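Q: Please design a sequence for this.
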């Protein structure tokens, strides 16, 4: 059974924690700046743009970061295969990012009208379209470093990027309000590209002649992850845009702003679990083929994730009257009576993440696509139903709980089916 020494896991966990805490801290400070200067109404207005940035951060460079982690982890002991694969990933990532940039720039006015409600702000879409090329480059560098289990490089990229963006974000938001906030959200993701480039120049992959002999073969393997990323982008951020429009129509911008605040708080602490599982759990599962070994690893990580999340969620709930005004602003005090719904939903969500990473590691495309599309449609349908019955923001939060409970149960059932019929039938190739 493939394993990592306890000392390495502890050292890596500390670095991953430091990096993610810096990202959470940076995200909270940026969120607080937007909350203080724009308030719930402004938060509701900028919510669609935030979702758009999230979509592009997922699909930039083809959305292949998990695929890179998987294959780099598999080839790290075979230098030739590793160099061939990374060469293909470079080309694939650049071409995909370039196409998105062209499409985004050419369609900027139409996108601005739909996302921002004002076509004259098309230039923000142009900036975002160009910036996502930096997102894609960062995803490439961090994917390779995570696949090699080089947590030190990953941590430094995260920490340096977060330190760089905050002073600039404060100047932008405090002086230019909505426009400054929009640019700050873009810079929050783009800032990682500078340290990523620095570490890329110092790596063994810099200035290497591209080896394109297996480009088509590797591109086909990576396209599976692109499809996963695109479906993931549609199933969550795009669904959020649709639901947010319905929420604004039925309950106003303040309710949409409170929901956006809840979403951003959630994404900040959930990001820690996502990164931890991507860095440690997925490379481990990639190497496992035996059903028993996979099931043991899943049970251990599910229990660990549940315990850590419960401890953090309990702390946040008990001290919500202190944390919410501190992390957002006193104008978000209404969220204190609603945060428990988000926490319950996230508990089931984070518990199902472990199984989700098994699916990604084993490239189980059909299972992934069906689950992502189903949960997106379920959440959107329930939200629209509850909003039509006058349940306002609470209805959206209830819909989120139901969706995540159903997703968790389905994930557990699906995992059992996977172990019975698929585990061990496919090896990394």
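A: Design:
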């Amino acid at each position: 059974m493939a394993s990592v020494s306890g000392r390495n896991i502890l050292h890596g966990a500390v670095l991953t924690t430091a990096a993610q805490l810096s990202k959470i801290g940076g995200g909270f400070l940026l969120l607080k700046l937007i909350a203080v200067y724009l308030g719930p109404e402004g938060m509701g207005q900028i919510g669609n743009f935030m979702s758009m940035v999230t979509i592009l951060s997922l699909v930039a460079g083809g959305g292949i970061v998990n695929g890179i982690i998987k294959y780099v982890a598999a080839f790290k002991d075979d230098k030739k295969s590793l160099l061939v694969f990374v060469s293909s990933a470079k080309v694939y990532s650049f071409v995909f990012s370039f196409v998105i940039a062209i499409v985004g720039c050419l369609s900027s006015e139409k996108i601005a009208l739909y996302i921002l409600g004002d076509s004259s702000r098309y230039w923000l879409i142009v900036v975002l379209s160009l910036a996502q090329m930096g997102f894609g480059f960062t995803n490439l560098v961090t994917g390779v470093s995570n696949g090699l289990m080089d947590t030190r490089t990953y941590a430094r990229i995260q920490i340096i990027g977060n330190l760089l963006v905050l002073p600039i974000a404060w100047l932008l938001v405090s002086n230019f309000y909505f426009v400054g906030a929009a640019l700050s959200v873009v810079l929050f993701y783009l800032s990682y590209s500078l340290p990523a480039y620095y570490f890329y120049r110092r790596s063994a992959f810099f200035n290497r002649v591209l080896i394109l002999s297996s480009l088509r073969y590797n591109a086909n393997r990576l396209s599976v992850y692109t499809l996963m990323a695109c479906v993931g982008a549609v199933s969550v951020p795009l669904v959020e845009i649709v639901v947010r429009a319905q929420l604004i129509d039925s309950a106003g911008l303040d309710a949409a702003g409170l929901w956006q605040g809840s979403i951003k708080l959630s994404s900040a602490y959930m990001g820690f679990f996502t990164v931890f599982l991507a860095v440690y759990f997925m490379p481990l599962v990639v190497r496992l083929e035996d059903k028993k070994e996979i099931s043991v690893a899943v049970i251990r990580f599910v229990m660990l994730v549940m315990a850590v999340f419960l401890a953090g969620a309990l702390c946040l709930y008990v001290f919500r009257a202190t944390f919410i005004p501190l992390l957002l602003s006193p104008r978000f005090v209404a969220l204190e009576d609603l945060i428990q719904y988000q926490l319950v939903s996230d508990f089931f969500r984070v518990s199902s993440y472990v199984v989700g990473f098994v699916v990604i590691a084993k490239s189980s495309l059909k299972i992934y696509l069906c689950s992502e599309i189903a949960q997106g449609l379920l959440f959107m349908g329930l939200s629209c139903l509850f909003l039509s019955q006058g349940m306002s923001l609470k209805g959206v939060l209830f819909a989120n709980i139901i969706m995540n409970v159903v997703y968790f149960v389905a994930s557990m059932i699906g995992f059992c089916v996977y172990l019975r019929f698929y585990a061990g039938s496919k090896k990394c190739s």
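Q: Thanks. Anything notable?
A: The longest helix spans residues 6-59. Residues 49 and 115 are 6 Å apart (CA to CA).
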